[in-house]
Amino acid sequence: MTATKLNGRQLFQKIGKPTRILAPMVDQSELAWRILSRKYGATLAYTPMLHAKLFATSEKYRRDNWCSLDGDATLDRPLIVQFCANDPEYLLSAAKLVQGQCDAVDLNLGCPQGIARKGHYGSFLMEEWDLIHKLIKTLHDNLDVPVTAKIRVFPDREKTLEYAKMVLDAGAQFLCVHGRLREQKGQKTGLADWEIIKYLRDNLPDDTVFFANGNVLYPEDIERCQTAIGCDAVMSAEGNLYNPGVFNVDTIEDKEKTFPRVDKLLREYFEIVKSIPESKASRIAMKSHFFKVLRPFLPHHTDIRSEIAKMNAKTSFEEWESQVVTPVEKVVGDIFAQSDIEEKDKIIDGKEQLWGGHYKTIPYWRCQPYFRPVDGVTGDQRVTKKLETEKGEKKRKAQEDVKDGVETASKIQHI
To answer: Which of 65, 201, 262, 370 has the lowest CB atom count within 10 Å?
Structure first.
């Protein structure tokens, strides 16, 4: 281990004090997507979550998930490589294989999916503090690069604070907090709790490098999150997958960069994948990214959706181009040839919501957030109704408190 390994604040300074972070996502934040996201404003990126034991022991797994261009100084920095693990020795062995191609190694303590429960990693280690401490400390004591960690919160904020302190004490140099419970996933995702993230930020040492994750739909939400929480940076996962322009906070008025046309972004991404044939992970992930980028577009053009469904990682680039990329460009090109396109292509802000931001109406030919429907109700409407109920309950309680106070004062006056 090098004697000059950087602490958290030193590392943060060295990599340019990044404020917009591409989250680690299983099979989704691979090399090509990281390159694209950086072009659209991301200033730090994490790899997909990698399985430490498999990475350490399986050459095939490493070939499928890692190549010489990952962490390349000209293409892919700054970069944090994330592993899931429950064995300190396998974790250290895996981390040593990549420490020369990254700026830090991260321990995933946030994955809430069933595969994490089955494999006993991610958020399903949240109750095993001794093991978590040992995992982080093993990396901190033996790697040439710093170790970081990404966590979820407990229902109790005091317990969450003690949990965060333990993670930092073990040696984590950056702390990223996803403001959702382990149970908040899929249809139960709901809003991330910025209040508990702020509570952690306010009660941890001032020099802690602190990232917030959750509730980023639009570029302006990044600044709103930083202001509300006081964090060093904001991370986006799903928001970025459907619209990489979510990171373009420096050009927030330029819709071509903040809500790019799906045809232009798809072409850009496709050309990046073609340019890095070494990255098998990027080739495998391409179909999923096509579906997400085109999510608002495909219901209007089901023929193209059918073509994407036929594709796989072995489909030639020529077929992808002729059957999907070029047809999308043709459709959107025809839309923009219409005489009234300037009126049709407007992005309209909705009214301010109870959670502090607002929703936008965006034409289907532009990248935009995805609201997952539950029982036929999309997340934006479901969240609004929930907050309206909570606000009404608070107002009713406040009125009762005032009434009780008046009655008490009246009784005192008559004594």
So the answer is: 370
